[in-house]
């Protein structure tokens, strides 16, 4: 049986987690589980027939698929369609949740992996559903399950993610930047490294990722900064480790992207651990 999620299930939920990955005909339309861990955890690439929504009560999570990668805080969750290969990694201590949706109920949900904003209603519905035994739903529970499905279907898709290029040379550049976000090579230098004309690199990278190479590199740095900040590194250290010329530039870009400063970003999550 493949690993189901980058969450460590609490002992009473082990049977429920097994059912979540092997949901059979006649079982509930969705199963919710919760889990927590005091150390980082990682799941290898895997897939399962149920669709899956992954979120957190506290901490930070990175989810990767063939289509891209998302690093999400507690305010967001990642939707993974039925049978989509994915891997996940937590950064530091975390408390999280997952909702598994029966394959036949995934048709009305997003067909591509994406990150969504988590509403208070969605979070409360997850907490309610996580208390259920694996059994056919009565009317009241069926209504809560439908609320969950509706929230997944209509939630805003607005968390910062990374679309990966598919062309081999572009993917080689993208992989190098993910491995070392501080790499400051210019577009011309990257083009020479990948044996591409600069104009071709610029045009094709934008077509395949929806961003310029410069904007994509900034997104890589910001997502990596979330990981480093969640690990407890000081803001100044994070800024210089990621190649920013000064701390003020990093803080300003972080604020424009996430709506708050790096020093305050994890305050709610830290209080919840």
TrEMBL record:
Keywords: DNA-binding, Repressor, Transcription, Transcription regulation. Residues 171-268 form the HTH araC/xylS-type domain. One of its GO terms (molecular function) is sequence-specific DNA binding. The keyword Isomerase does not apply. It comes from Janthinobacterium psychrotolerans. This is AraC-type DNA-binding protein. The lineage of its organism: Bacteria, Pseudomonadati, Pseudomonadota, Betaproteobacteria, Burkholderiales. Pfam families: HTH_18. SUPFAM superfamilies: Homeodomain-like, RmlC-like cupins.
């Amino acid at each position: 049986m493949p690993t189901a999620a980058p969450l460590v299930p609490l002992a009473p939920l082990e049977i429920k987690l097994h059912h979540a990955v092997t949901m059979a005909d006649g079982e509930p339309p969705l199963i919710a589980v919760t889990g927590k861990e005091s150390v980082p955890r990682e799941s290898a690439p895997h897939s399962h027939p149920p669709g899956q929504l992954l979120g957190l009560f506290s901490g930070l999570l990175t989810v990767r698929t063939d289509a891209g990668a998302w690093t999400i805080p507690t305010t967001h969750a990642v939707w993974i369609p039925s049978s989509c290969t994915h891997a996940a990694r937590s950064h530091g201590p975390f408390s999280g949740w997952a909702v598994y949706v029966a394959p036949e109920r995934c048709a009305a949900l997003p067909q591509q992996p994406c990150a969504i904003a988590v509403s208070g209603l969605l979070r409360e519905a997850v907490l309610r559903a996580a208390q259920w035994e694996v059994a056919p739903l009565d009317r009241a529970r069926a209504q809560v399950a439908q609320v969950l499905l509706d929230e997944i279907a209509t939630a805003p898709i607005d968390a910062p993610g990374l679309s990966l290029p598919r062309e081999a040379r572009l993917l080689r550049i993208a992989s190098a930047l993910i491995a070392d976000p501080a790499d400051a090579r210019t577009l011309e230098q990257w083009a020479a490294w990948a044996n591409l004309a600069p104009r071709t690199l610029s045009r094709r990278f934008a077509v395949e990722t929806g961003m310029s190479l410069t904007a994509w590199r900034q997104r890589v740095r910001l997502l990596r900064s979330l990981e480093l900040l969640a690990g407890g590194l000081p803001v100044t250290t994070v800024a210089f480790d990621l190649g920013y010329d000064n701390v003020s530039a990093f803080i300003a870009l972080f604020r424009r992207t996430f709506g708050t400063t790096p020093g305050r970003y994890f305050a709610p999550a830290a209080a919840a651990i």
